[in-house]
């Protein structure tokens, strides 16, 4: 049996908007506390919405520090966080970075969190998410089928080899997708539910 291996080019795949109906709405928030109080054995802080403008999150941190029991308190830290998906928020993460990641998560869902974690919240890569995200799929084979179906691969095979030979030519969609990832054309990140987020790396 013959196997046909077409050249992969994920950058030219059809537009795909993954459904987020099954995904709960994420509302990222952080617990900001006064570092001076913590060092003195007490906790002064509160949960605040992180998906806000940079300036608003910074103002919240300043307000919390101003309410410290220590009159000399000047610094804050992130002591806890919630609804950031796969993204790990550091205790001394820049608030502007936290706010940008949180806004992206609220707009795009958990896939953005995985993308942010993958690239260490690099500002340029966060901006590239919309052009890089290819969608969510049950498996890599489903992604490959969508890409190749859009290129009318089976019709092209029938035209190239004729109706008598075409039925005997099998496309190895799964291997094609694996090769695309191995070659660095795509990145596949598994979701908590066992599905796959697909990203273009070109």
TrEMBL record:
Spans through the membrane: none
Segments of this protein annotated with the region Disordered: 1-26
Basic and acidic residues bias spans: 13-26
Coiled coil (residue ranges): none
One Pfam family it belongs to: ArdA
Polar residues compositional bias, start-end: 1-10
Protein name, per record: Antirestriction protein ArdA
